[in-house]
Design brief:
Blueprint: H1 3-14, E1 18-23, E2 28-31, H2 33-39, H3 43-46, E3 72-81, E4 85-98, E5 101-110, H4 112-134, E6 138-143, E7 148-151, H5 153-159, H6 163-166, H7 171-175, H8 177-191, E8 196-204, E9 207-219, E10 225-234, H9 236-257, E11 264-267, E12 270-276, H10 281-298, E13 302-309, H11 315-330, E14 334-338, H12 342-350, E15 359-361, H13 364-373
Parallel strand pairs: 12-13, 13-14, 14-15
Antiparallel strand pairs: 1-2, 1-5, 3-4, 4-5, 6-7, 6-10, 8-9, 9-10, 11-12
Helix pairs in contact: 10-11
Length: 387
């Protein structure tokens, strides 16, 4: 090997990229360690063989440089690796003359990881584009000056304008100063690194509409925040329905709270109170107030509480009912509970009630008959009804 060849040998062996020297017969005359490592074969298995057996196999009889006098600079090609199969490479080919013989120097690097990353990025961009184009929610991107730089078809439809008329504009221009000020305050927080969910109202086509919006910062390759991306869902109809439901519920609760607790005088000194519907904290309070007031006002000695239409009560309400019975006794009135259901009975038993402070009967009619038979009518006695 002459001096020139020796110099080339020293040079190419130290290079971190693959290097091959190919003669006009397309045979590999020299190759460095980086290239053999990429191919996965020993140097002796490669030297003297046609280059297309290892690089650009599809162009064996169609060499861009020798056959077409083309220049290759950072061109993408394929290298055949023993262990990895086809490997994407980027190569540059230079023509040189060594000892009077024309040769090619092919320098190449493995770009498999880069190609995989590019493919993954392209697939990601394609998925984003598909979502961006077909989403029913408005999707938009703003730069650091908070001007729109992308808007999807859903946003175009919402605002009744093509993207070309939206891009470059601010929220003040699109929605007015009042709405724009709120949006700007939120956006500045996102540009500060926050991810924010926000619900706000803004005028669209002269009509106030409510949106639930999620905004996230967008970062460039250096990690700096370059803008923000937002997804906005029009929840105006949902909010209107919620408002109607709240109003209806408020009216229902007001009507329910206003339900009278009927206190009926069925005889001198005897009151009957049929309780219809749910007996909860609100109604037990009204029952206590109405019942004690009537006992005092009418000087009643017997109160029949008919629970036929009450299917169940919780232990707290049952306890409150017993407290009401005890309060009636302090006013000199004896209580008769009628129509107790299994659920109500179970709640009372859980409280350890033995029924010693009141009389129970199956129905309101039996309760009335009991009150009449026991002579509990008329003026109050000191002990009330007897069992």
């Amino acid at each position: 090997m002459n001096e020139t060849t020796e110099k080339w040998r020293t040079l190419i062996e130290e290079m971190p990229i693959g290097i091959m020297i190919v003669d006009r017969e397309r045979r590999i005359r020299d190759i460095n360690r980086s290239a053999t490592d990429m191919i996965g074969r020993a140097q002796k298995e490669i030297l003297g063989r046609v280059c297309h057996g290892f690089v650009c196999p599809m162009r064996e009889h169609d060499c861009p440089v020798y056959d077409y006098k083309q220049t290759l600079d950072r061109a993408e090609a394929v290298l055949i690796s023993k262990d990895r199969g086809d490997v994407a490479i980027e190569k540059t080919v230079t023509q040189i003359v060594v000892d009077g013989e024309e040769m090619l120097v092919e320098m190449f690097s493995d770009i498999g990881d880069r190609k995989a990353a590019e493919d993954a990025l392209r697939e990601s961009e394609e998925r984003f584009r598909a979502i961006f184009e077909t989403a029913q929610d408005s999707i938009f991107i703003k730069d650091r000056s908070l001007r729109y730089i992308q808007a999807n078809p859903a946003m175009e439809k919402l605002l009744g304008a093509p993207a070309s008329e939206l891009l470059g504009r601010t929220d003040d221009e699109l929605f007015g100063g009042a709405a724009g000020a709120h949006i700007r305050d939120v956006d500045l927080r996102v540009l500060g690194g926050e991810i924010i969910e926000d619900t706000d109202a803004k005028p669209v086509g002269g009509v106030s509409r409510t949106f639930h919006t999620i905004k996230v910062p967008i970062r460039d390759r250096s990690g700096e925040i370059a803008g923000l991306c937002g997804i906005a869902r029009d929840i105006t109809r949902q909010k209107n329905l919620e408002r109607k439901l709240h109003n209806a519920f408020d009216k229902l609760m007001n009507s329910y709270g206003a339900l009278a607790i009927p206190v009926i005088q069925v005889h001198d000194g005897v009151l009957a109170i049929p309780i219809v519907g749910i007996l909860d904290d609100m109604r037990i309070n009204r029952l206590t107030e109405a019942m004690l007031a009537k006992i005092a006002d009418m000087k009643a000695s017997v109160v029949i509480l008919d629970l036929t239409a009450v299917r169940s009560i919780d232990s707290d309400v049952a306890n409150r009912l017993l407290e009401t019975v005890a309060a009636a006794r302090l006013l000199g009135a004896k209580c008769i509970l009628t129509g107790i259901s299994p659920g109500v009975a179970a709640a009372m038993v859980q409280l350890g009630l033995d029924g010693g402070d009141f009389v129970t009967r199956v129905s309101l009619q039996e309760g009335l008959a009991y009150a009449m038979r026991r002579g509990g009518c008329g003026s109050r006695g000191t002990g009330g009804l007897r069992r």
